[in-house]
């Protein structure tokens, strides 16, 4: 490049963050989200319900995207660096639920007329949490319920992954954004030569699993195996299970479904909790041996079976359930909680203290990295165990060098430090959230005890959904005060973006320019 050739850069200034690149990418994502409102509008028209709330919300979303595009100097998302990536991820997961809440407000949904409630519900949907303020789900129109489920599905695999897949302008920045979205300390392992093709294949697998799951559940209804299950219900439960979300079109979550349907959902959740990069290699590339040796997958399955065994032992000891029913309900609840789905087939709050404590601990485990689940993730637990083991070994043998390996590959020290830092921040966010809920409950004179506050904090931060007490499997978050709902909404946001992209925004070094000290 000659000295006379100008190099146009974004508006960094003293901030050190390329504002143009961030705004341009935000605009691109919003323009792609806007047309999604046409789907519930079509459902509304077919069912004789008002469609204008969705059309207005979609138009507002697309208009905002166009407006953001207009204020940028040029389309140059390849300028996305680590700081821009953090800011984009944090802002997208704040903005999209804000626009997603518009249909609830415009449609004057009785249980969602409060902006705090509407934003809570939308954040819960897009973050695939499944926590709800609806005390009577079946009293909401089908189009609104469809929008709740669609928000689950869009947010499950990740809006960022969708953006990388469909925005042709993303180049270098696409890998950084995909790494930020597919949680876990390991680097993204591309399935193809380009990160955009990798994102497209992940979304293709996600769509395929959703279609197969919907058809299987619908077939149960058509064949009379679960007569109460229609196509809308099949779509709703399938999207909740594949996205590991937890929203249900019925008040009783999954408890009213036939046993065969519950077993199908259990299998769907278990599969969706696997790293999608590994899942693609198994289902599409047929790399059975390589996938079967994956240490994270082995630990994931072991923890599920161990937790299910503990729950089963408690259920059988109490003698309230027959053996077959106890196996189904405890296995379902173990996989639902561990994968942060939140669907329920029984009121686990009555299962006894061992079951309650087991489910609370499962909220901190989570599914595999690179899955649609939330919480800490299995790979981080695996790394933490090996870090502790190494410390014990080196305490007795101070001169020994002990590398930590996963699947035979040494993990670099930066990733190990990142894992420790993330878990520390996660536990701090959980503790502060629990404390905030107790304070909010005292101010509002809400009947919330300490354990229920702990459960709600762990559930929302881990994107699980159902908690304990009135926020239990068949309850809702409606009794919480507005302040408590704001805290829980913030926790859902923190959990979905994996904390770091939010925390770094509050550090001085993030906003300093290239020459900042």
Tally of helical runs: 23
Structural class: mainly alpha
Q: Could you give the order of strands across the largest sheet?
A: 1-2
Q: How many beta-strand runs?
A: 2
Succession of helices and strands: HHHHHHHHHHHHHHHHHHEEHHHHH
Strand content: under 5%
Largest sheet: 2 strands, antiparallel
Protein model, in words:
- This protein is mainly α and 517 residues long.
- The chain is built from 23 helices and 2 strands.
- Among the domains are: 14-198, no CATH class; 411-510.
How would you briefly describe this protein structure?
This protein has 517 residues and is mostly helical. The chain has 23 helices and 2 strands.
Overview features:
517 residues; mainly alpha; 61% helix; globular
List the helices and strands and how they pair.
Blueprint: H1 19-33, H2 38-46, H3 52-70, H4 82-100, H5 102-106, H6 115-126, H7 142-157, H8 159-166, H9 172-181, H10 195-222, H11 231-242, H12 259-272, H13 276-283, H14 288-292, H15 295-318, H16 323-338, H17 353-362, H18 378-396, E1 405-406, E2 409-410, H19 413-444, H20 450-461, H21 482-497, H22 500-503, H23 508-511
Antiparallel strand pairs: 1-2
Helix pairs in contact: 1-3, 1-4, 2-7, 4-6, 4-9, 6-7, 6-21, 7-11, 8-10, 10-11, 10-12, 11-12, 12-16, 15-16, 15-17, 18-19, 19-20, 19-21, 20-21
């Amino acid at each position: 490049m000659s000295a006379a050739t100008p190099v146009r850069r974004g508006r960094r200034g003293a901030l050190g963050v390329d504002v143009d690149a961030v705004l341009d990418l935000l605009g691109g994502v919003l323009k792609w989200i806007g047309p999604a409102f046409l789907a519930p509008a079509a459902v509304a028209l077919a069912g004789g319900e008002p469609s204008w709330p969705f059309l207005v919300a979609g138009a507002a979303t697309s208009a905002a995207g166009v407006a953001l595009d207009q204020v940028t100097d040029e389309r140059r998302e390849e300028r996305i660096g680590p700081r821009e990536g953090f800011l984009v991820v944090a802002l997208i997961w704040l903005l999209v639920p804000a626009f997603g809440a518009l249909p609830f407000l415009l449609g004057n949904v009785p249980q969602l007329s409060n902006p705090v409630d509407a934003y809570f519900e939308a954040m819960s949907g897009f973050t695939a949490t499944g926590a709800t303020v609806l005390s009577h789900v079946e009293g909401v129109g089908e189009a609104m319920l469809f929008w709740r489920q669609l928000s689950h599905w869009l947010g499950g695999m990740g809006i960022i992954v969708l953006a990388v897949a469909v925005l042709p302008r993303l180049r270098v920045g696409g890998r950084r954004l995909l790494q930020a979205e597919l949680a876990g300390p390991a680097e993204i392992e591309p399935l193809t030569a380009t990160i955009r093709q990798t994102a497209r294949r992940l979304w293709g697998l996600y769509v395929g699993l959703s279609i197969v799951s919907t058809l299987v559940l619908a077939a149960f209804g058509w064949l009379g195996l679960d007569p109460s299950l229609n196509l809308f219900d099949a779509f709703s439960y399938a999207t909740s299970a594949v996205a590991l979300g937890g929203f249900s079109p019925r008040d009783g979550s999954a408890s009213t479904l036939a046993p065969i349907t519950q077993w199908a959902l259990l299998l769907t959740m278990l599969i969706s909790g696997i790293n999608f990069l590994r899942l693609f290699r198994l289902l599409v590339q047929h790399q059975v041996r390589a996938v079967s040796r994956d240490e994270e997958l082995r630990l994931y399955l072991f923890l599920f079976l161990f937790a299910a065994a503990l729950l089963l032992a408690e259920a059988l000891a109490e003698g309230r359930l027959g053996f077959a029913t106890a196996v189904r309900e405890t296995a379902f609840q173990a996989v639902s909680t561990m994968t942060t789905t939140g669907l329920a087939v029984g009121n686990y709050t009555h299962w006894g203290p061992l079951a309650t404590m087991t489910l609370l601990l499962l909220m901190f485990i989570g599914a595999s990295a690179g899955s649609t689940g939330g919480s800490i993730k299995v790979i981080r637990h695996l790394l933490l165990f090996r870090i502790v083991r190494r410390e014990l070994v080196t305490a007795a043998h101070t001169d020994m060098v002990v590398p930590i390996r996963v699947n035979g590959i040494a993990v670099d020290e930066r990733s190990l430090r990142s894992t420790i830092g993330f878990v520390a921040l996660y536990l701090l966010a959980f503790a502060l959230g629990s404390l905030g809920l107790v304070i909010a409950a005292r101010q509002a004179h809400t009947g919330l005890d300490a354990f229920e506050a702990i459960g709600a904090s762990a559930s929302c931060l881990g994107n699980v959904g159902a908690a304990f007490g009135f926020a239990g499997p068949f309850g809702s978050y409606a009794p919480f005060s507005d302040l408590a709902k704001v805290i829980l909404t913030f926790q859902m946001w923190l959990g979905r973006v994996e904390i770091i992209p939010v925390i770094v925004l509050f550090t001085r070094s993030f906003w300093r320019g290239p020459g900042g000290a």
